[in-house]
Amino acid sequence: MTEIDELSARVGEACRRAGLTVATAESCTGGGVAEAVTRTAGSSAWFDRGFIAYANAAKVDLLGVRQETLGTHGAVSEAVAREMALGALHQSDADLAVAVTGVAGPGGGTATKPVGLVWFAWASLGGTVESRFEIFGGDRAAVRDQAVREALKGLLDLASREG
C-alpha cells in the first residue's frame, strides 16, 4: 500500500467515525485527489464528488470563483484556492472540501510563482477555511504526487478536528 493509499484510508476512517463527507476541487492535480480517494474501498460512504476546474472559466462556472479574484491574484493563489474550496462545499452535499491549484511544470513558472508552487485550501461547513502553500521539487509527476499527498494530509487533519 502506498503512502497516498494509507492517507486516503485514514481520511475515510476519520470521516466515517465523524459522519462527514468530502468534495474535491482540483486544478493542477487534474483529479488526482479524487482518484486516490475513490481507489479506497468503501469511499462511497464518505466521498461526495470531485470538480476538475483546470481552466479559469471552469473555476468560475463550476466553483463560483470570482473573475475579479482571478484577475487580481491569478489562478495560482491563496485567494483562488480558498474560493475553490468554498465553492466545492456550496456546489456539493459535502461537509469538508479540499482545493488544489498550482504550477506543476515543466513550464508556466515565474519569479513570483515558480514551478512547484501549489496552493491548498480546506473548508468545512462548520466555518473552517484554512490555506497554505508548498513549493515542491521534481518533475511534473512528482509535483502532482506530492500535492495529492499534502491535500490528503490536510483533509485528515480537518476531518479529525471537525469530528
What can you see in these coordinates?
- The chain has 163 residues and is α/β, with parallel strands linked by helices.
- It has one domain: Alpha-Beta Complex (Maf protein), CATH 3.90.950.20.
- 45% of the residues lie in helices and 20% in strands.
- The protein contains six helices and five strands, in the order H-E-H-E-H-H-H-E-E-E-H.
- It has helices spanning 3-18, 32-38, 56-63, 67-73, 78-90, 140-162, and strands at residues 22-26, 47-52, 96-102, 117-124, 129-135.
- Strands 2-1-3-4-5 form a five-stranded mixed β-sheet, with helices on both faces.
- Strand 4 and strand 5 (129-135) form a beta hairpin.
- Helix 1 (3-18) packs parallel to helix 6.
- The model has no long low-confidence stretch (mean pLDDT 97).
